[in-house]
Design goal:
The chain is of the alpha/beta class. It has 8 helices and 8 strands; from the N terminus they run H-E-H-E-E-H-H-E-H-E-E-H-E-H-E-H. It has 2 domains: 209 residues, Rossmann fold, CATH 3.40.50; 44 residues, no CATH class. The strands form 2 sheets. It has a 6-stranded mixed sheet, sandwiched between helices. The structure holds cobalamin.
């Protein structure tokens, strides 16, 4: 059974809300000390630079968790060659949240020509940056074996199932298997991440969180009550429907596609056909 989570601000705040909002989420022990924190509840690891603005996923997720009462630290663009950067804020009390960044780390790192990209947002990222697929989660695991790992963001979302990877020209398996993360959050993460944080803070185990809409996880065997389906029977290859022009006016689309078939057929834009008084034939608008 999939659980749709509750209203975001209906949770009782975690006790650490008494520390208040940090001017910036801390990125070092010294910044944690200045806030009077002995530890972080959640540490977010990101492939991007930390920019405290709502168009940056890690800032948005971090500030939301802070508003729920959790102490959130940020590790931005860690050096994945050792665990040193991953331990710079200590061990989180609840979980590491890892994202490749605002963009897929391959899109971020390479041009479509497979050349290393230079980037103002992520200076030094070219070729040296970590990877959501393996490097960053592995270092977190080495740094703190018993701490749950949750991955999310656009890369985790789009690569959560088998997918074609342009750079290697291969169909690759789910990033969850390479990252060996405990849980993958896909799409917008606000609801899932609040529920996960509150459940872990209440002492629940990450492996028991298997009912949240918008999450994916790996199981060694098929759990009771689940069925395996051969995907080739779900989506059979065939001719493609012509693409819909998103800018076309409705009358043009209708002319190209024809009116909906059958009595009471659903009209895609929620518009109903209307007959115009005095019009020569049927008009749709
Ligand atoms: C606005 C935008 C831009 C703006 C950025 C302005 C700015 N400074 O913010 C501009 C126009 C500059 C831009 C440029 C580019 N963009 Co752009 N952009 C977007 C857009 C429309 C919205 C991004 C956004 O603000 N999202 C809001 C944040 C909060 O959402 P989010 O990062 O996804 O985070 C959510 C989840 O992912 C998750 N999450 C995030 N972090 C974490 C962490 C954890 C631990 C967890 C659990 C969850 C989680 O929760 C968050 C909240 O719900 C997206 C499309 C889209 N609708 O997402 C494309 C998009 C990100 N862009 C894309 C691309 C390709 C580019 C360019 C490379 C284009 C180009 N060829 O130049 C450049 C690169 C710029 C750069 N160097 O980074 C692609 C990336 C494709 C991919 N697979 O990675 C996207 C997805 C569009 C697309 N579908 O093709 N872009």
């Amino acid at each position: 059974m999939q659980t749709t989570t509750r209203e975001l601000f209906s949770y009782r705040k975690h006790w650490a809300h008494r520390f208040g909002a940090a001017p910036f989420l801390p990125m070092s022990k010294a910044e944690m000390d200045a806030l009077g924190w002995d530890s972080c509840d959640v540490i977010l690891v990101t492939g991007d630079a930390y920019i405290d603005h709502p168009s940056f996923g890690m800032a948005l997720v971090g500030r939301l968790l802070e508003a729920q009462g959790f102490r959130v630290g940020i590790i931005a663009q860690p050096d994945w060659h050792s665990t040193r950067d991953f331990l710079k804020l200590g061990k989180p009390n609840l979980f590491f949240g890892i994202t490749g960044g605002n963009m897929d780390s391959m899109v971020n790192r390479y041009t479509a020509d497979r050349r290393i990209r230079t980037d103002d947002y992520t200076p030094g990222a070219g070729g040296a940056a970590g990877s959501l697929r393996d490097r960053d989660p592995q270092r977190c695991r080495e740094a703190a074996k018993d701490v749950p790992i949750v991955i999310g963001g656009i890369e985790a979302s789009l690569r959560r199932i088998a997918h074609f990877d342009y750079w290697s020209e291969k169909v690759r398996r789910s990033v969850l298997l390479d990252a060996k993360a405990d849980l993958l959050v896909f799409g917008n993460a606000e609801r899932q991440i609040c529920e996960i944080a509150h459940r872990l803070a209440a002492g629940r185990k990450i492996e028991d969180i298997d009912d949240l809409r918008g999450t994916a996880f790996v199981r060694k065997a098929l759990p009771a009550g689940w069925a395996e389906i051969d995907s080739t029977t779900i989506d059979t290859p065939g001719p493609l429907a012509p693409p819909v022009d998103p800018y076309a006016m409705e009358w043009r689309r209708t002319a190209e596609r024809g009116p909906p078939k059958g009595k009471g057929a659903p009209w895609r834009d929620g518009l109903q056909p209307r007959r115009r008084a005095g019009s020569p034939g049927r008009r749709w608008r």
